[in-house]
Design brief:
It is a single chain. By secondary structure, the protein is mainly alpha-helical. The chain has two domains: 2-105, no CATH class; 137-312, Isoleucyl-tRNA Synthetase, Domain 1 (Orthogonal Bundle). 50% of the residues lie in helices and 8% in strands. Strands 1-3-2 form a three-stranded antiparallel β-sheet. The chain has a three-stranded mixed β-sheet with strand order 7-6-8. The chain has a two-stranded parallel ribbon with strand order 4-5. α3 (80-93) links the parallel β4 and β5 (101-105). α6 (155-178) packs antiparallel against α11 (261-285), α8 packs antiparallel against α9 and α8 (202-223) runs parallel beside α11 (261-285). The longest helix is centred in the C-terminal third of the chain and has 25 residues, at 261-285. It is elongated and about 95 Å long. The two termini are 41 Å apart. One of its GO terms (biological process) is methionyl-tRNA aminoacylation. Its EC number is 6.1.1.10. Keywords: Aminoacyl-tRNA synthetase, ATP-binding, Ligase, Nucleotide-binding, Protein biosynthesis. It comes from Microctonus hyperodae (Parasitoid wasp).
Length: 342
């Protein structure tokens, strides 16, 4: 909405609707394409560059229509005028449809300063990936990049987010449910609708409410291109899952199994509800960190056929059996905590 309003203001002011020169004297731009029938001028670089969007999909051959117009075009805020006003005008003048949606995003700053070669604060993605892993860097960039505001990059911030959310929240929930003290055989009980009745606690009820609402909240956020809100909604659910786990003290239930026949039933309900939270949360995060989440879903015995958006619904696991499933590796670590070298 922010950049849409900026475009409307430009149009209402009228300055961007005046005649636009699409050429420059050859003395200023000798490297440009020559203007037909006028060797003293070359095509203005922005007109030339924008046409590349068409030529890369085959224009002017008719096959280009299979890829045009695109459903969405993503740009940075510094080129909004050219892509939000001039580019659609060029296309319409040529009898072509403009992109259906223009997604304009803000920029990254580094330690609250504009990234600049002269300042020497340009970030190398390869070096950052070595420190935080490629999956960790991807998660941070997509999680923190709010479209309407500049996002700030710092090693300390990345480390804190990855450790807090991936390692301590999602990873820790899975490790708790699969720990030898509460789940010595590494089984994954299939969740049941009566788990809530078995546990009968405020924490369990709140978690079920989160799980039932999460897919709709996340889908709306995805449709609005607000990936940070997707992650926020997932983290709120996982916080509720960890709170439920702590409140029922499964480590005590595990010790009471031999003397209390209800202990095993409650323990299974705690584990299944915790792992169901991890399953649904993982499916929702799958577009953000596909490789990392795919590995976790493999460990949770979620078949590839059950990784559709419809499977984000509570209890819709898509598993072919209600039997328990064993993890494919012993004591898996979803995401290792990161320590920065000072």
């Amino acid at each position: 909405m922010k950049y849409h309003k900026i475009l409307l203001n430009w149009i209402e002011e009228g300055t961007c609707l005046e005649d636009l020169s699409v050429s420059r004297p050859i003395s200023r731009a000798p490297w440009g394409l020559p203007v037909p029938n006028d060797n003293s001028h070359t095509i203005y670089v922005w007109l030339d560059a924008l046409v590349n969007y068409l030529t890369c999909v085959g224009y002017p051959n008719t096959k280009f229509s299979k890829s045009w117009p695109p459903n969405i075009q993503i740009i940075g805020k510094d080129i909004l005028k050219f892509h939000g006003i001039y580019w659609p005008a060029f296309l319409i003048a040529a009898g072509l449809d403009p992109p259906s949606t223009l997604l304009c995003h803000s920029h990254w700053t580094v330690c609250d300063e504009k990234m600049s070669k002269s300042k020497g604060n340009v970030i190398s993605p390869n070096e950052a990936a070595e420190i935080f892993t490629a999956d960790g860097l991807r998660y941070f960039l997509l999680r923190e990049a709010v479209p309407h505001n500049d996002a700030n990059y710092s090693n300390e911030k990345i480390c804190n987010i990855l450790n807090t959310e991936l390692a301590n929240t999602l990873g820790n929930l899975v490790n708790r449910c699969m720990g030898k003290s509460v789940n010595p055989h590494g089984t994954i009980p299939e969740p049941k609708a009566d788990d809530i009745d078995i546990l009968s606690s405020n924490e369990a009820h709140k978690l079920i409410e989160h799980l039932e609402n999460l897919p709709t909240i996340a889908e709306n956020a995805y449709n609005d291109y607000n990936l940070h809100r997707v992650v926020d909604s997932v983290m709120q659910t996982l916080f509720a899952a960890n709170k439920m786990f702590e409140s029922h003290q499964p480590w005590i239930l595990a010790k009471e199994i031999n003397t209390n026949e209800q202990a095993q039933i409650k323990l299974n309900a705690v584990i299944s509800l915790g792992l169901e939270s991890a399953r649904i949360s993982s499916l929702i995060l799958l577009p953000i960190v596909p490789r990392l989440i795919s590995n976790l879903l493999d460990s949770l015995s979620v078949p590839s056929s059950a990784r559709m958006w419809s499977n984000c619904k509570y209890l819709n696991t898509g598993r072919k059996s209600t039997n328990t499933f064993g993890l494919k590796q012993e004591n898996p670590i979803f995401f290792k905590r990161i320590k920065l070298n000072n």
